[in-house]
Amino acid sequence: MSGSAAPTTDPYQASGIHLSGETLMGLRHLARRGVSPASRTLAGLPGGIVTKKRGRGSEPDDVRLWSEGDDMRFIDRNATARTGELHVRTHHDERDRTVVLLVDFRPSMLFGTRRALRSVAAAEALALLGWRVVGDGGRVGLIVAGTGEPVVIRPSGGERVMTAVTGAMAQAHAVALAASATDDPPLGPILNLARSLLPSGGHLVMATALDAPGADFDNVLTVLAERLSIRLLLVSDAFERMRAPGFYPYAMPDGQRGTIEAERAEPGSKAADDRLAEMHHRGIEGLRIDVETGPEAYAPLMERLDAML
Q: What is d(CA 309, CA 201) in angstroms, rounded to the nearest whole number?
């Protein structure tokens, strides 16, 4: 059931079906909103609590006037000599991170009932996270899972890699929409590809609904989790969580239309929450991304996820 909401002036909601590389590029401003030098030293914990890492860190951050309680060892001699007043140099934690973003554009993700397709929401959330990572000096790579050969961008740093990542996602999404309908290929081989791109201790962030992951998915994921830090963005459409029983019209990307009978959704988004709980027991933390809410709602979630990486 592919479709979008009524026309809106919100630029982030203008393309509910087609993915715009320009829009994904524009998300860098939303991703960096509210990020200060102090927040770069935050380490996230599962849940709503965020705490500072211990220690002063290793990277110079700023020079400011000395105040009562500052460690005299960190006095900045040059600034003190130049101004005649005591100044201290502050530091932040060096974050040498490599993150591979895995976005699911398989046929089951080309579905949506409010605002956008699940595939579009997955790309929006990962773009926000990617901009945050490169903004803090990390490296970002990309894998796009579809029906054909996966699209791969090897991890690199800076705005140039995010230009490549956003453009590749937009192009791959257009290809996915134009492809003939077929069954979802398994995700196991895609996970093995991620392993080849990341060093030990690297980070893999998957944005998917976990529909039809394949028979070997669980085994491959378990092996991979011993070597990498894996996080899940579970993409959820409102229709899955709160639909009433009845007959629903649908439209396919190729123009085909029809009607489907659906049962009542399980209350309280039980299916999505059960999947997240299962992943948690396996040591893989995750967040639910509700398609209908959009990038403004994803931004604080990606800030929380960024602190956990």
A: 10
Phi, psi for 306 (deg, rounded to 5): -55, -40
Distance linking the first and last C-alpha atoms of the chain: 34
> Residue 55 gets which letter from DSSP?
S
pLDDT in tens, the chain (309 residues): 444 443 444 444 446 889 999 999 999 999 876 444 434 433 333 444 344 443 444 445 567 787 776 777 888 888 889 889 888 886 545 457 899 999 999 999 998 888 999 999 999 999 999 999 999 899 999 999 999 999 999 999 999 999 999 999 999 999 999 998 789 999 999 999 999 999 988 999 999 999 999 999 999 999 999 999 999 999 999 887 765 666 656 565 556 676 766 565 555 445 778 889 889 888 899 999 999 999 999 999 999 999 888
Query: Which whole-number Å values give the CA distances from 74 to 84, 270, 283, in the listed order?
Result: 16, 52, 39
Cα separation of 265 and 270, whole Å?
9
Closest by Cα among 295, 20, 21 to 164: 21
Give the integer Cα–Cα distance in Å for 153 and 197: 9
- What pTM does this model have? 0.73
125 vs 293: CA distance, rounded Å: 11
